[in-house]
Amino acid sequence: LRSLRAARADAHAANARVSTEQWLAENGEPKVDLTDATRYDLVAYRDARALLLEPSSLRTEMGCISAFYRYAHQRGWIATDPVPRWGEANRNTLLPRTRRARVEKFLSEAQTRHFLEAGLRGDGPVTDGAPAFPERDYVFGLLLATTGLRREEAGLLLDGEIPTLPLMPSSGVDRFVCRGKGGVSRSVYVTTELVSALTLYRNVERRAIIEAAQPRLRRMRREGQLFVVDDVTVRNGAPVLRRVKANIIVERLPDEDRARAVQVLPDGRIEPLGLFLARGGLPPAIAYWNEIFADARDRVDAYGSADRPPAHITVAPHTMRHTFAVRMLAALMREGEDRANDPYFLLVNPLLTVQQLLGHASVETTQQYLFAAENWHEELPTTLRRAAAELVTASRPTEGVDA
Asked: Within 10 A of 164 (CB to CB), how many other CB atoms are there?
């Protein structure tokens, strides 16, 4: 990853050098090069490039140019640094001050429900291209929207990590530990409503997939392509795999083993341990879920409901994670407002809580959702309509108006 980032940075720097040299050759003094550029040249170059590049690309290019001149000045190649800087920190003021418009990519409750039902499950009048496993796709999306799991984390869950309905605590909330991005472990909470929705998929579609996949699974076992465990037990509420006289904590199971983990039952049947299965009896490739969501978007568009997601949002698995973050943060802030008449009274706790739920390494990442959480409530459309209604007369005189 570091090599990729370095290569990308080198490419940006090379592009910045070439475009700067070309601009100076066309607009500067004869035989001018990078070390001859003045502050006026750089500001004029920035303004010219601003007409051609997106703000993010322009900031990257100006950052590369700033780094070059700082280095050139430190090495003594130039007497003065031509980049305009400000303050004790010598902040690069060559960077454009244009701020990107804030577009929040999350769904309202009605939009989320409609996408799950009409899109992923295929409810409604659209019959062409119906999902092959509607309950599986529906509960996968529901899991993302109610837990904030990443696509990769949800796609490789084991069936034993989420309890069945009879084993749910009386509180209606249970948890399991997930090791996600960067190897960071966190608690993921599931509710009775989610587990209840999983029941139909588990009892019908998942059973049918496993039965149909037995020939393929047996062949894969003979070829040594499966991760076969001897037994699955529960310890302290979490599943533990036993393999070759060693216990494996599920939380620490690598992704490649999760994707091919099975148990051979006494009757010879092979039981996949994954929760979400494809036709072959094992979890589908992670990228496959993007295709499932693409098909769901087509169904939602064909359905034509007023609850379809807004045009600026291309709903993907990660959209459900954004939706969970905004809705959870907004709900926790409203809780603080209800208790103390101040939405910021418990602000630190909501941020830290959502940070832990999402597995963010830094609370600064979680704060990106704060703007949306502050400004969006489910009651907002009603409030907006009430404000507009107060400005619109109940009826208009029609006398003297041409038909």
From this structure: 13
The continuous run of DSSP H or E covering 366 comes out as helix 363-366
Structure tokens at 174: 């249970």
Structure letter (DSSP) for residue 77: S
Parallel, antiparallel, or unpaired for β 227-229 and 185-191? unpaired
Indicate if the alpha-carbon torsion angle 190, 194, 199, 202 is positive or negative.
negative
What's the Cα-to-Cα distance from 131 to each of 144, 219, 338, rounded to whole Å? 18, 28, 43
Bridge partners (DSSP) of residue 261 are 227
DSSP codes, 376-388: --TTHHHHHHHHH
**Closest among 243, 253, 229, 232 to 177, alpha carbons compared:** 253
Provide the token pair at 244: 């070759």
Q: What are phi and psi of 274, to 5 degrees?
A: -65, 150
> For residues 122 and 132, what is the distance between their CA atoms, to the nearest angstrom?
10
Q: Give residue-wise pLDDT tens across range 58-105.
A: 888 888 888 888 888 888 888 888 888 887 777 788 876 655 545 568
Checking phi first, is residue 244 left (phi over 0); if not, alpha (psi -120 to 50) or beta?
left
Q: Which residues pair with 85 in a beta bridge?
A: 92
Cβ atoms of residues 121 and 303 within 8 Å: no
Say if residue 382's pLDDT is above 80.
Answer: no
Residue 182: per-residue pLDDT: 77
SS3 179: strand
Q: What is the DSSP string of 344-361?
A: TTTSHHHHHHHHHHHT-S
**φ and ψ of 229, to 5 deg:** -110, 150
Say how far residue 109 (Cα) sits from the centre of its chain.
Answer: 17
Q: Other C-beta atoms within 10 Å of 128: how many?
A: 7
Place of tokens 């607009």: 27
